[in-house]
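Give me structure tokens for this 174-residue protein.
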Amino acid sequence: MRALLERLGFGGRELTASGHSKDFVLRVVQPGLIGLMDGSVSTLAPLFATAFATRDAWVTFLVGLAAAVGAAISMGFSEGLSDDGSLTGRGHPFLRGVITGGATFVGGILHTLPFLIPHVGLAIYVAFAVVGVELLAIAFIRYRYFSMSFWMSVVQVIIGGSLVFAAGVLIGSA
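Here you go.
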């Protein structure tokens, strides 16, 4: 495993304050966290707006799937094209783009999957619970790899997620 990580350019010995390889945090964790946060948050408004406006679980699922795929492609290209890694030391742009795009898709699709449940009311409650788990996972990653206070991170991501969720509900209920 160590040889594979060194071959991919994660062999640096410099450690972060949290005790992790700086290369690993910059080249894998950070792009993955950006993607997970964007996918989890940016798809909330269209997903819940659709659920409240249409009361149709299948249509809501399709909108959520489209939002997750679109966000993943957008974020993957944005991350991959943002720099070539030589100036910032953030690694190969293709690998960062794949990591960011993949994490964005995961963040967007997890709370979309409950809308495969035909009863939209139940799907909304399940999706809401999934969003809570996603936000706690994001807070934990920030705590683990970036030496942040876990509870401060929880408060920050819940405030951000709540604002986007509220926007979706308000727009969908209009």
